[in-house]
Amino acid sequence: MTTIPAPTPLPVTAVTCLEDRAHIERDAVLELEAGIHRLRLGPVSALAVDRTLHAELTADHPGHPAKVLDVRIVRTWTPRAPLPPSDEDSALHHHVHRLEEERRALGQRRDRLGARLDVLGRLATDLLREIGEGAGFGEADPERWARELDRVDNERETCGEELRTVDSRLTAVADELADAQRGLDLSEERPAELVGHIELTVQATAAGPARLRLSHLTACALWRPAYRAVFDGSTLTLETDAMVWQRTGEDWSDVQLTFSTARSALATDPPRLGEDLLTLRDRTAAERRTIDVELREEHIGDLGPSPVLGLPGVDDGGEVRVLKSPEPVSVPGDGRAHRVPVSAFATSARSEYACSPELSPLVTQVVRFDNRSGHALLAGPVDLIRDSGFTGRGTLDFTAAGAAAELAFGSVDDHRVVRVAEESRDTSGITQRTVVTRTVRLHVSRFSAPGEHGEQVVVLRERIPVSEVSAAQVRLSKEACSPPPDTVDAEGIVSWEVMLPPGSRRTVTLVYELSASGKVTGL
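RE: above sequence
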């Protein structure tokens, strides 16, 4: 078996970013001779997961196959490369770096001055030879010769003085650097760097090139979706980006990036099974005579993914989603956030001013649009931009391809909503039926600047309870509502479209009744 100790470069060509790790793919062309060879490839990230290491060898000539006999990763501690200090390094380390830079600059200055003195010495020799030859031929020019000799002597004296100054400063810098380096060695320890190499054993039946494809998982890499929404009044442009962080120990240069929501770590954990004990018992006489009900808040939404402990996960709607970068990109391994474009689309959007006074008294501009990106929009932050520029940051919920979505572009300062709620209770003496009447008044005001014209439509939304049992009923008193609501959906959301001229105010009244028989308790 032939052993080749010199390492062969194995660059990263493709990366699939997951929620909390990355799948790395590497390609290289190997020139193989016939026989069995042990190769050393790399360096690679020392964070590579050994059990996920997979190598595949493909020969260019089908008649001369090559196969992988063994592949493993070997890690060694090596001294760190001399790199400039970062913001995280100490002041002493920065001081040593400055002294090294000054010593390097002084050394270059000394070399230049020495070369200049050498040139001036040769110039003085040539000038003396010219004086001797001129005097021999009877061509005397004492004034020019004296002037030239004085100029050369002055230059040599100036350069000599500068050279002595530089040598003196260089000696002082060397002494100071030695003291600082000793202090740095005593106070700080520069740990060695853990570097990994791939040891590959291959067998080739004939000499020739073969393409190696190697893949593995690595930690310290993750991604999250981010968006940028630009709204000009009628058209919304939504740009989908991926924020990538990686500190795997190596840079990703010109790689094809793929972003996936697959959770490989959760797939290996079996579901937690707990005991659920069910018992049957007869109802008591008091329980047969009464029906216990309660008012509860219920969040209406779809089931999302399983949460990742300690890390906000990606909401993909419960299905694995895959996004790809259209062009190769480079992501340095500095641990910082890097924005990678994924897709962009422009579509017509509908804008309205809406308010839910029970949740917030602010009137918000809501933009509704259809997802025309061709892929699902994952939940993530959105940078909101209008004609005036950046207006803030919002959130986008999970939206399937082609489905409707909405974004809130901030509140409107010239609108104000005040909510006042009242409740009255009445019990009939004969049927013992309880009727609870609730009245909600919404006072909407518009404070307009002088000279402003045009009406503004504000959509107000309130809610009424939805009963799940026949013993308790909810009835909307449309005759008592002022004005009657425009829509009432199955989830109990009541809405009005209120027209507000400049400087006007309106009052909207909602009245509904909760009635229950005498058996019902808890209201």
